[in-house]
TrEMBL record:
It comes from the Bacteria. This is N-acetyltransferase. Coiled coil: none annotated.
């Protein structure tokens, strides 16, 4: 697949609105050539493309999966149910960016008709390959419009995102600084954040932010040590190989931001890696991706992964910071719950019906969870001018 053709299709699909490096050819290609997402690791590339007169009109990054690792939308129970009834669940079809739970476009197309044809081709591909199922993960609204019942079953999960929207009495505007963000939070949460930041400061830790070509080869090497350390501490081998990050440094450097924590002697001890929505001076969105530490310092994780990135976002006019998959603890750091979406097709009619009933119950439970989370909002009420009682 030619990189220019794929990226042109992506640009046309999104109408030029950048959405991070994740669906770019360079990112997906790096996952493969680095050995991170390959048949040897259970990711069999089966990319689907639609052409007319030699022009690429639609495409999707499809993988035949031999497991459900690295997806962040969990279907282990579905696999166990298939196996319990003597039916293989793997291989299954998956449309996703490996190891990357960031919402965005998945079915790229030049026009609505091409997107419709691509959706139909996905089902045909799954049937011909005799896959148990096909899954489209973390898709956006344009995909959701065509991934509809009865063929596709909708599923929602929760992530936590921060928006650069100060609720001033005169109306919404971007935050001026981190202190103004704190002023919008409840006293309990404001006090907690200040305590956490104070612990890091009292430990003599200082941070520096490096972006793009300012991130040196030594910085990338140090980041990878931290990244691996965190995975091994949680009992898992790291998904991404060194070659992936080498490719990012070479091909997509300006899409990345690295925060490095140094101890009082100046030695680096931790870092967090943030992806950006584009390579401009003022990206619209930042995405929390990876972090790691070689030393334990109380509250260092919160400082590296939330407070430093949020300060940077405010200073650079970034509109949104997406904190990644899972983590209710992010709410206490001003990241609020949002729904993310996936779509699922199952070949076996009885299992499709059973999963549909399960998803209906899960959706009702999610509605209740969202209501509870909204009641626990860390943001205090703001009285606007002209409102009753103002």
């Amino acid at each position: 697949m030619d990189a220019a053709e794929w990226n042109t299709l992506l640009r046309l699909h999104t109408q030029g609105v950048p959405g991070g490096p994740f669906m770019r050819h360079e990112y997906l290609h790096a996952l493969h050539v680095s050995g991170s997402a390959t048949p040897a690791t259970g990711w069999h590339p089966q990319w689907l493309t639609l052409w007319r007169s030699g022009v690429l009109h639609a495409a999707a990054p499809v993988y035949a999966k031999a497991h459900s690792y690295g997806e962040y939308v969990f279907d282990w129970a579905w696999a166990q149910a298939h196996e319990a009834h003597g039916l293989p669940y793997y291989p299954k079809g998956l449309v996703a960016v490996p190891f990357t739970p960031v919402p965005g476009p998945r079915l790229l197309a030049r026009a609505t008709a091409a997107r419709d044809a691509l959706q139909a081709a996905l089902l045909q591909q799954a049937a011909q390959a005799r896959w148990s199922s096909m899954h489209v993960l973390f898709h956006d609204a344009s995909d959701q419009a065509i991934l509809q019942p009865p063929a596709w079953l909708a599923r929602q999960t929760v992530q936590f995102h921060w928006h650069n929207t100060c609720r001033s009495p005169d109306g919404p505007r971007p935050y001026r600084d981190f202190d103004e963000l704190l002023s919008q939070m409840t006293q309990e949460k404001r006090k907690k954040i200040r305590q956490e930041r104070r612990k890091v400061q009292q430990a003599g830790i200082r941070f520096e932010a490096r972006r793009g070509r300012d991130i040196t080869a030594a910085d990338w090497d140090f980041f990878y040590r931290c990244y691996c350390q965190t995975y091994w501490e949680h009992g898992n081998p790291p998904y991404l190989k060194p070659g992936f990050f080498e490719a990012m440094a070479d091909k997509l450097a300006d899409w990345w931001l690295l925060f490095i924590a140094r101890d009082p002697t100046g030695q680096p001890i931790a870092c967090s890696l943030i992806a950006l929505s584009d390579d401009s001076a003022r990206p619209r969105v930042a995405y929390g991706r990876y972090w790691g530490a070689l030393q334990r310092v109380d509250s260092l994780h919160f400082e590296a992964c939330y407070y430093q990135p949020l300060e940077w976002c405010i200073a650079h006019g970034v509109e949104r910071f997406e904190g990644g998959a899972q983590g209710v603890h992010k709410m206490a750091r001003a990241l609020l719950p949002v729904r993310t979406h996936s779509a699922h097709w199952l070949a076996h009619p009885a299992f499709a019906q059973a999963v549909e009933r399960f998803l209906q119950r899960e959706a009702a439970s999610l509605d209740q969870q969202m209501a509870r989370l909204q009641q626990r909002s860390p943001m205090r009420a703001i009285v606007h001018k002209g409102a009753p009682g103002a």
